[in-house]
């Protein structure tokens, strides 16, 4: 399963955002009207884009909406940028003014790639001198689009695919420094109450596929069978386990074989890994009534064995001996504000992000870190409280994944 990419359409009222959304989707997903301000809240449409995979197409209210409510709508449109993998900035009639520049510059500060789209091209073609000016100023693709031309849909989809396939997510989940061709690897996959019925969890599946792509030789076992594997053969390059089985697995693996987790590989792939590593040390300075923010990037039904809502809070309380408080955020929902203490949250812990893109995770994590809040990752937090940072095999794993 591929991560879902978010494509947000931004522009003034009546710039043609809803019409373009309908054209890209190939069906009517947003109401189109000559009345300014027809779109009041973000409208989402899930679609598959060839060469990319599943995407959310997000139509938004005009960035120039007026009045108290209009300002709230405009602000909501800007907030969609935080979870965006790509933005389409629409303008029409060669009118590229303060509103459009504000959007384009905001996107640049957020490191969100964007395409400038001159819409209603059949009514008023884009002036070539303006094209050159915008190209020099922003260095991004500039598209001329008429939603009355059927061929423009393919051109638009092609441009979107090129941008999303050039978004910096080329880093491998499993670097060849960790496991390459012919290397023998053990994956430890617990099948317990937290495991999905009839299948493996996505990080395990992704890791297995990445190892196969690297032409590694893979053995998959449950924790209870791991000791039997080493009784007959210890010639393995690395062991990768579910974070929850760290203690059990690390006690079995012979010295000299690196041990890491699926979640840590995901953290390295999706987020600012250096920040995660540095922030995990904050666990040692947590105090009574400190509030910890748990960030889940998917929505699921929590169970009594839920890793983020049950197990990690219990581990932190046991390790620190403190009465900690916890807030939880699912999916890409808004981060709750917490101002009861001057410092706000004492720590945030991000999941592996198997259902989100690197840009979505990085944007969320960095927005929290900018407030002075340390942010780490599920796998690193679990390894820390279980004492793995003092384990030679775990240190070797971290060194290997840092080599690329």
Could you write a compact summary of the structure shown?
The chain is of the alpha/beta class and 404 residues long. The chain has 14 helices and 14 strands.
Overview of the structural elements:
The two termini are 25 Å apart. The mean pLDDT is 86. The protein has 404 residues and is an alpha/beta fold. α11 links the parallel β11 and β12. The strands form three sheets. A six-stranded mixed beta sheet has the order 2-3-1-4-5-6, with helices on both faces. It is elongated and about 75 Å long. It folds into three domains: 160 residues, P-loop containing nucleotide triphosphate hydrolases (Rossmann fold); 95 residues, Rossmann fold; 114 residues, Rossmann fold, CATH 3.40.50. It is built from 14 helices and 14 strands. Helix content is 37%, strand content 18%.
What is the secondary structure topology, with strand pairs?
Blueprint: E1 5-11, H1 17-25, E2 43-49, E3 53-59, H2 67-79, E4 86-92, H3 98-109, E5 114-119, H4 128-138, E6 142-144, H5 151-164, E7 184-188, H6 202-213, E8 217-221, H7 223-232, E9 238-241, H8 246-252, E10 259-261, H9 262-270, H10 273-279, E11 291-295, H11 307-320, E12 325-329, E13 347-350, H12 358-369, E14 375-377, H13 378-385, H14 392-401
Parallel strand pairs: 1-3, 1-4, 4-5, 5-6, 7-8, 7-9, 9-10, 11-12, 11-13, 13-14
Antiparallel strand pairs: 2-3
Helix pairs in contact: 11-13
Spatial sequence of strands, sheet with the most strands: 2-3-1-4-5-6
Order of helices and strands: EHEEHEHEHEHEHEHEHEHHEHEEHEHH
CATH hierarchy, class of the largest domain: Alpha Beta
Biggest sheet details: 6 strands, mixed
What is the name of the CATH architecture of the largest domain? 3-Layer(aba) Sandwich
- Average of per-residue pLDDT values: 86
Please state roughly what percent of the residues sit in beta strands, choosing from under 5%, 5-15%, 15-25%, 25-35%, 35-45% or over 45%: 15-25%
Residue windows where pLDDT falls under 50 for at least 5 positions: none
Radius of gyration: 24 Å
């Amino acid at each position: 399963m591929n991560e879902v990419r978010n494509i947000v359409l931004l522009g003034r009222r009546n710039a043609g955002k809803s019409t373009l959304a309908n054209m890209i989707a190939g069906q009517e997903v947003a109401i189109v009207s000559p009345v300014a301000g027809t779109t009041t809240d973000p409208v989402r449409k899930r679609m598959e884009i060839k060469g990319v995979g599943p995407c959310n197409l997000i139509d938004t209210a005009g960035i120039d909406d007026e009045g108290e409510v209009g300002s709230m709508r405009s602000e909501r449109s800007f907030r969609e940028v935080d979870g965006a993998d790509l933005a389409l900035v629409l303008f029409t009639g060669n009118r590229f003014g303060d509103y459009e520049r504000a959007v384009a510059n905001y996107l640049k500060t957020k490191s969100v790639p964007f395409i400038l789209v001159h819409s209603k091209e059949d009514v008023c073609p884009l002036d070539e001198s303006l094209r050159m000016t915008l190209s020099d100023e922003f260095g991004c693709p500039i598209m001329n689009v008429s939603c009355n031309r059927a061929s423009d849909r393919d051109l638009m989809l092609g441009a979107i695919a090129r941008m999303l396939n050039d978004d910096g997510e080329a880093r491998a989940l499993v670097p060849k420094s960790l496991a390459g061709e012919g290397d023998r690897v053990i994956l430890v996959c617990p099948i317990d109450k937290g495991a999905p019925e009839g299948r493996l969890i996505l990080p395990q599946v992704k890791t297995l596929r990445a190892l196969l792509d690297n032409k590694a030789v893979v053995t998959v076992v449950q924790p209870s069978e791991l000791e039997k594997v080493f009784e007959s053969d210890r010639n393995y390059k690395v062991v990768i386990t579910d974070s929850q089985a760290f203690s059990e697995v690390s006690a079995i693996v012979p010295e000299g074989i690196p041990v890491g987790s699926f979640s840590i590989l995901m953290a390295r792939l999706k987020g600012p890994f250096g920040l995660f590593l540095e922030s995990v040390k904050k666990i040692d300075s947590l105090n009574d009534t400190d509030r910890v923010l748990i960030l889940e990037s998917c929505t699921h039904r929590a169970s009594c064995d839920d890793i983020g809502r049950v197990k990690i809070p219990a581990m932190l309380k046991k390790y620190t001996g403190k009465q900690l408080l916890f807030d939880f955020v699912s999916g890409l929902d808004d981060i709750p504000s917490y101002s009861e203490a001057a410092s706000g949250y004492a720590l945030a812990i991000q999941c592996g992000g198997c259902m989100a893109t690197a840009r979505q995770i990085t944007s969320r994590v960095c927005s929290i870190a900018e407030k002075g809040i340390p942010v780490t990752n599920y796998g690193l937090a679990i390894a820390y409280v279980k004492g793995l940072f003092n384990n030679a095999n775990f240190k070797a794993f971290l060194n290997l994944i840092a080599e690329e």
